[in-house]
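Re: your question from the hallway

Yes, I did run it. Sequences:
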Amino acid sequence: MSSITAAGGPPAAGAPQGGRRGQSFDPSSLARHSPRYGERAVMVVLQGAAMLSVLVTIGIVVSLLLPALSFFREVSVGEFLFGTRWTPRFPGQESYGVVPLITGTAWTTAIALLIAVPFGLGAAIYLAEYAAPRVRKVLKPVLEVLAGVPSVVYGFFALTFVAPFVLEDLLGIEVGTFSVLSAGLVLGIMIIPTVASLSEDAMSAVPSSLRQGSLALGANKMRTTLRVVFPAAVSGIAASIVLALSRAVGETMIVALAAGTQARVVTGATQPGQTMTGFIAQTATGESTPGTLSYNTLFAVGLLLFVLTFVINMISIRLVRRFREAY
Amino acid sequence: MATIGQLATQPIKARKHGAKSPASIAFLVALWCALGFSILCLLTLLITSVMDGLPRLDSNLLTQYTSQIAPERGGARAAIIGSLWVIAATAIMAIPLGIAAAVYLEEFADPRRWYNRLIEVNLQNLAAVPAIVYGLLTAGFALSIGLRRGVVLAGGIALALLILPVIIITAREALRAVPAEIRQGSLALGATPLQTVWRQTLPSAIPGVATGTILALSRALGEAAPLLLLGGLVTIRFDPNGLLSGFTTLPIQIFNWAGRAEADFQQLAAAAIILLLVMLLLMNALAILIRNRYQRQW
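Structure:
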């Protein structure tokens, strides 16, 4: 317990407001008054609320693991991870190889990062290094609005505008209604603010003495930005990209609407494909009775998704910690 | 021989010269393009949604249930009421828990204890867990306590768990911004630590906490993925009227309509998107208003 916590010390005489003051001025004695059971109860409640977050994590692991374990009793782990046919809903020829879903997720995520990293970093560098404070004050909230648009709206945008108009008509790329390209592009737009906002924070945290030193040595603004500020902020920038990666892997509504529902190994950007999240969304909307293999399949894929994003998040948290320690 | 004045201006000239090199200009243009692209995307998204949906933005959208046979007259009534119920359930669960956890972590927790450090890392991780995983969690939880999956309460639990880390993180930032002098003054006058938090620290942090909470709730309002697993994707043709009532929400209704091939449904989806965006805009405006109006600079 830290500075201002009342330690429930021995029952010293005198109410807190009482006239009898302690003889010495030992500050620790100020904290020792009569035990306040009500306050201790409130403290326990507060602590319990904080502990709930750990319970939630344990709950996630348990609720994913139990059905997933029943799944793996019927399907071997090797077949699940390395099988290349995903047909859980074809009666008679069910096959549970998750590779097609992984390729779907990999394609949409890769396309999303190809969009979000350059555009997000460019926006971040401009806002952190070049923009006048007034411009920045207007533009940063605009980027945050982009982050606040619900993902189902992005999905609708991908389905009704990006695929038919931007890709087919404007750029002349032959894509069907569903493709990992249109889903990935819009996914990329959605995660631009994640990259931009966190990278901007990282670059703004670089002390201006470093910039001044560089400028004083004769480097121009661009050199200073690229050779001094960027390397100094690189772990924060990396963390922002890793976090964006995690969001792209876990995003559901865009890929459920725009990537398609055919689970097959994706070998090109213009093909339709199903992602891990897309499969969960599609199966959940159908009938799935608890206890059946089809229900457990959801949790096996969910467990894989959780483990993947967990590893990615941990890398991001590590990177952020390094960047915080730097200055 | 250069005069002192000329010498003094030389570095500035050199910098100006460097700033106008072709590479520098190309770099700056590239940065402009990056930012411009993001803003262009936002504008395109808003404009296309509004243009698609405007013809259907009528009173039927608000007062009619969705209709399979006559989508041109259908509406999102059940989804709007369902969204309000789910958000209310989410708020009731998430706000007290989130603020309590934030108060504990910011005011009382000793960061050197291993369990408090565990909570910290755990919160950061939870904030980045995919939304759909919360749906799986709640589906499993509901099953184990015998709660029917497709009810408002289950949806509220899923969304509350989803936004809890966000509320805790923003509430902590608001509490951290309250200067230590306020706490010290209160303690020096004889208030107990909890009295200090309840009467001084929390009231001072309320604007920041409220702003963060409203933004978190607006995220919950737009979220659909976890609710898909909780039976939210059903055709509801009645007004949800309680925590154990079946429900659908606006984002799910949009997902449902957008996934259909008929143009009428697409138009309906666009109209509902306008409605959703307006609701989110109002919530965000409220958050900004509170921040600007009540936030004190210490």
